[in-house]
Write a structure and sequence with these properties.
By secondary structure, the protein is an alpha/beta fold. It has two domains: 4-33 and 290-420, Lyase, Ornithine Decarboxylase, Chain A, domain 1; 35-288, Alpha-Beta Barrel (TIM Barrel), CATH 3.20.20. The chain contains twelve helices and 20 strands. It has helices at residues 19-26, 35-51, 74-81, 92-100, 117-126, 136-148, 184-195, 216-235, 262-272, 286-289, 323-327, 415-420, and strands at 4-6, 12-14, 17-18, 30-34, 63-67, 86-89, 108-110, 130-133, 153-158, 200-206, 242-244, 279-282, 293-304, 310-314, 333-335, 344-349, 358-365, 373-376, 398-402, 405-410. The radius of gyration is 23 Å and the shape is globular. 48% of the residues are buried.
Length: 428
């Protein structure tokens, strides 16, 4: 469910704000996020997990650490933080964003395969809940940094369960040939080592097998393996307090199969982990943010070739939304004010000097004209966070809507702002 619907005037609105009003005030392209959708998606997941008795530490709700890499806007993070969300982070910058959003260190998880000594030190000083260790060298580095600071690093070992999942090869993270995590045999050895290391405090294990997973079977296969690992570690006399099951549950991208619901997901976990006494945490990103945002763009013109191919040229480009170019991703494209006429087949493209700057080919859409506004649906995750200044285009702004109000939560920079970030070499 999302809160982008046609209003009484027949135009697309976000909650109580017509998208045209935002376009007129801010310009296009622009990302628009719905607070109501963010809040709903978080609470639906939380309530499903709690209903199945999946608890966090000390009997509290499980830690739902929103994957900041999906959408790192501080206003978005604040919206979720007010509901109790934590943050799954993969860099010092993301930790800083989470802290700036009011998420306390004890609700922040630090993941990623290439953490630097400086980042680990920052995480420890910030009091993060745990550092998810993804290799033996990283574990030793965490110990060295912690001991240099006179403390112990609370860690979880990330395991690669060798389960194939994810909507695209580039977002599958749980196979043995992916860079993430350690094997099960390594996990047992490293956990035992960590328990006897003066700089480490191992508290649990974690896995994450990919993104945009629409079926529960691969998740269940991974979780069964994780339960077995917890049992083996405890049989060796090791304490395992936490189990982090990652994220990855898919969202409906309109042309894809409807993914499993949060309720079905929670029931599967409860059945798989029945009787296992651990504190649970989760790292959802896409399922909370994707359908909470759209990319709003303006049609520049329609270019029709003599052989009949029609190009709808937009002011948005691959630097604003790179998912179609990088992942062959599908985004539903909706005119803000659709015309009641027979569909026309378009290639929808941007202005960048790349053939790859093509959002879709041979898409049937209502007739479009220059000046029309269109919205790329399901663009709230991995949209603005992956944007760039390629072709020296200005970074796309972001707007957050709450009811009948909206606020610019990342302004569009000026060309002067863009140029001011660079400096001449002294010999020039």
């Amino acid at each position: 469910m999302n809160h982008f619907d046609l209003g009484p005037d027949g135009e697309l609105a976000c909650e109580g704000v017509p998208l045209r009003r935002i376009a007129e005030a801010v310009g296009t392209p622009v990302y628009v996020y719905s607070s109501a959708t963010l809040e709903r998606h978080y609470t639906v997941l939380r309530d499903a997990l709690v209903a199945e008795g999946l608890r966090g530490e000390h009997g509290a709700d499980p830690l739902i650490a929103f994957a900041v890499k999906a959408n790192s806007n501080v206003a978005v993070l604040k919206t979720l933080a007010r509901l109790g969300a934590g943050a799954d982070t993969v860099s010092e910058g993301e930790i800083r964003r989470a802290l700036a959003a009011g998420i306390p260190g004890e609700r922040i998880v630090f993941s990623g395969v290439g953490k630097t000594a400086g980042e680990i030190a920052f995480a420890l000083k910030a009091g993060v809940s745990e550092i998810n260790v993804e290799s033996e060298p990283e574990m030793h580095l965490a110990s060295q940094v912690a001991q240099s600071l006179g403390t112990r690093a609370t860690i979880a070992i990330r395991v690669n369960p060798d389960v194939s999942a994810g909507g695209h090869a580039k977002i599958s993270t749980g196979k043995s040939d992916n860079k993430f995590g350690v094997s099960f045999s390594e996990a047992e050895r490293l956990y035992a080592q960590a328990a006897n290391n003066a700089g480490l405090r191992p508290v649990g294990v974690t896995c994450h097998i990919g993104s945009q997973i629409t079926e529960l079977a691969p998740l269940e296969a991974a979780f069964v393996k994780m339960r077995g690992l917890v049992g083996r570690l405890r049989a060796e006399g090791l304490s395992v307090e936490r189990l982090d099951l990652g994220g990855g549950l898919g969202v409906p991208y309109f042309n894809q199969p409807t993914p499993a619901s949060p309720a079905d997901y929670a029931r599967m976990i409860a059945k798989t982990m029945d009787g296992l006494d651990v504190a649970y945490s989760f790292e959802p990103g896409r399922m909370i943010a994707a359908n909470a945002g759209v990319l709003l763009s303006t049609v520049q013109h329609i270019h029709e070739r003599p052989e009949g191919r029609k190009f709808a040229v937009l002011d948005a480009a691959m630097n604003d939304l790179i998912r179609p170019a990088m992942y062959d991703a599908y985004h539903d494209i909706r005119p803000v004010k659709p015309r009641d006429a027979s569909a026309v087949t378009y290639d929808v493209v941007g202005p960048i000097c790349e053939t790859g700057d093509t959002f879709t080919r041979d898409r049937d859409l209502p007739p479009l004209q220059a000046g029309d506004l269109v919205a790329f649906m399901s663009a709230g995750a991995y949209g603005a966070v992956m944007s760039s200044e390629y072709n020296s285009r200005l970074l796309v702004p972001e707007v957050l809507v709450k009811g009948d109000q909206f606020a610019v939560v990342r302004p569009r920079p000026t060309y002067e702002d863009m140029l001011a970030k660079e400096a001449d070499a002294p010999w020039l």
